[in-house]
Amino acid sequence: MNRLGLPNLGVGVGLRTVHYAHILETTPDVDWFEIISENYMQTQGRPLHILDQIAERYPVVMHGVSLSIGSTDPLDREYLRELKALRDRVGARWVSDHLCWTGVAGKNTHDLLPTPFTDESLRHIAARVREIQDFLGARIALENPSSYVEYTSSTMREHEFLAALAFEADCGILLDVNNVYVSAFNHGFDAREYLAKIPYDRVVQVHVAGHTRHDTHIIDTHVGPVEDDVWELLTDAYRRGCTAPVLLEWDAEIPSFDVVHAEALRANVAIGKSARGDAA
Amino acid sequence: MIDRKPEPKIDAAFELRLRERASAMPAGMKPARARPPTVTRRSATDAPALLRDVQTWVSDAVTRPLEDGDTRDAERVVTGGPHLSATDRLDLYRWGYHARLVECLADDYPAVRHALGEDAFDTLCHGYAAAYPSRSPSLNSFGRHMAAHVRANGGAHADFLEGLARLEWALGETIHAPPAPVLALDELQSFGEAEWAVARLPASETVRVLRFDHAVNRYFQAFRDGDAPTIPEPQPTATAIYRRGFTVWRMDLTPAMSGLLASLFAGATLGEALSAIVAHAEDANALAEAERNVMVWFREWVAGGFFARVELGGR
Questions:
Q1: What does the buried/exposed string (b/e) look like for B254-266 if buried means 16 or more CB atoms within 10 Å of the residue's CB?
Q2: CA B211, CA B163: separation in Å to the nearest integer?
Q3: How far A278 CA lies from chain B's nearest CA (Å)?
């Protein structure tokens, strides 16, 4: 159990439309599903109808991409109201989003843009997290995004900022070990050193995913199976005290549900290695 | 004139084509060019001082048109990495931004994309993103201006493409429309002839009646069937988009059918709407056929959930 009192749900799978029929017809033995919150907002049609049925059968967690917690625009109250209504409708166990901003001056890039790691950003984001948590009546978790730039103005490393933010705002962390791997390559830092500095009592969930490697950079595409290096980071995180549930994200060239689920269940092998003390 | 009864067409497969968000970069985005990492170290005073200034600068850089060259002065704001310069790193976001929005519009408008060809469609989308940047947390509504955009920028076939865009947008709107009570067949049979004359039948939330200058639905169906349709010659047509349960259907409408529905949805009584058909019927045979079929049409329309309810005694 983490500091937020949220349960370890086991190994989950990101819910995607191509798997709707299979899940409803066969009720596969999956521990839990994570939904992308925005896929069920600003719609009253079939997506919500499907989600209602899935939420009746499985624990559901909400993961958003549009909270834009780091933006200097005012918080979007209508978005928050809709987020809360969806959370209540499906009984989501918790709500998460990303340590990022998606736009400014009302213009949305729909990307997870990294924030400068400065004292100003820390104060700004911590205040907004507290405000959102008050509104939702529950603590949220923020995920380290994959990033492709760092700012000249940053005065902290990402893991330092994330830990400080979780403390200042009293929120949870969604630790994406694939994103740690991707960002470590793109920025030239040591992924294991990053994991060593994470306050695991605040980690409520872990993400794993595939990525696309180029000669000069790695893109977080959520395509294909999880690379061995990323599984080893999951083992490392568990060895360092992580107890959070693990979820696989697969968003491009999505295979059958059974293939995705089997890939997700490899997390149990990685976690088992940490318990046995195998080399990661 | 009255054609044979149009067959409804199912669009169940379309429902899998829902706009789905992910916390990932588009898999098909163009990779960055490899250039030497930037080694310039600017003093802190060169960089935007406040978070707001940094965000404004980055947003402008990321959303700039792709043909607008390199992102100038990137080193002021972002650092070079081990393998890429500051400019190339920032351009990953710029390419991702445009790729994501093109991907979104391609999901919403697959037939328009087919009609235009991929390159022309991409160019159209880049212009669209510049003209109508997203201001919503959701991408569901991002493509809503495409019909107007393609009418202004669709070249020689702009009229046809505008209609095709309206059809494709209506399909998405119908999918996302809230479930709402609709008039049931049982209710239809509970009214007497005198009541029908003054009855109003407002449209349900899940029906759209669209009129076109071309055989847009026929083109769309051929596209859906995997054929390679060519852009048709001008020809007035009309199509109803509607949802039965959570499945979306399309039904071609004859001029009499679309005229009747348009009148009803505009608030006319059934008597007024039928009188309008009589007034505009082009020949006696067509009128007779309309009179014979009107009850069949109504049964199908009611079964399809076209009407929200029956209103008697004024608006």
A1: bbbbbbbbbbbbe
A2: 8
A3: 31
Tokens of A2: 């983490």
All residues of chain B having their beta carbon less than 8 Å from the beta carbon of residue A103 are: 59, 134
**How confident is the model over B159-166, as a mean pLDDT?**
98
Tally of CB atoms within 10 A around B194: 9
| Cα–Cα distance, B63 to A99 (Å, whole number) | 20
Q: How far is B86 from chain A (nearest CA, A)?
A: 7
Q: Does B23 contact A118 at a Cβ distance shorter than 8 Å?
A: no
Four-point Cα dihedral A252, A253, A259, A261, nearest 10: 10
B61 interfaces chain A, CB cutoff of 8 Å: no
Tell me, rounded to whole angstroms, the distance of Cα B30 from its chain centroid.
27
Name which of A45, A112, A216 is nearest B23 (Cβ-Cβ).
A112
Which residues, numbered 25 to 54 in chain B, qualify as contacts with chain A under a Cβ-Cβ cut-off of 8 Å?
25-27, 29, 31-32, 34, 42, 44, 46-48, 50-52, 54
* Residue B300 reports pLDDT greater than 60: yes
Using a CB-CB cut-off of 8 Å, the residues of chain B touching A20 are 16
Q: Which residue of A has its CA nearest to B50?
A: A120
Mind listing the pLDDT tens digit for each residue in B81-139? 999 999 999 999 999 999 999 999 999 999 999 999 999 999 999 999 999 999 999 99
Q: How confident is the model at residue B32 (pLDDT cuts 50, 70, 90)?
A: low
R_g of chain B computed on alpha carbons: 26
Give the pTM: 0.90
Helix (H, G, I), strand (E, B) or coil at A14: strand
For A207, list phi and psi in degrees, rounded to 5: -110, 140
Residues 6+ apart with CB under 8 A from B60: none
Q: Which residues contact A159 (CB under 8 A, 6 or more apart)?
A: A144, A194, A197, A198
DSSP B239-268: EEEEEETTEEEEEEE-HHHHHHHHHHHTT-
Instruction: Tell me the shortest Cα–Cα distance from A249 to chain B, in angstroms.
Output: 9
Q: What is the pLDDT of residue B314?
A: 56
Q: Is the pLDDT of residue B39 over 50?
A: no
Sort A169 into a burial class: Cβ within 10 Å, 0-12 / 13-18 / 19+. Answer: buried
Q: How many residues does chain B have?
A: 315
Integer Cα distance of B284 and B278 in angstroms: 9
B103 interface with A at CB cutoff 8 Å: no
Picking from A38, A46, A118, the nearest residue to B138 by CB comes out as A38
Of the partner residues A72, A148, A249, the one whose CB lies closest to the CB of residue B93:
A148
- Measured CA angle at B263 (ends B262, B267), to 5 deg: 115
Q: Do B137 and A46 touch (CB under 8 A)?
A: no
Pairwise CA distance, residues A50 & A89, whole Å: 13
**A105-138 pLDDT per residue, tens:** 999 999 999 999 999 999 999 999 999 999 999 9
Q: pLDDT below 50 — which residues of chain A?
A: none
Residue B42 and residue B79: Cα distance in Å, rounded?
10
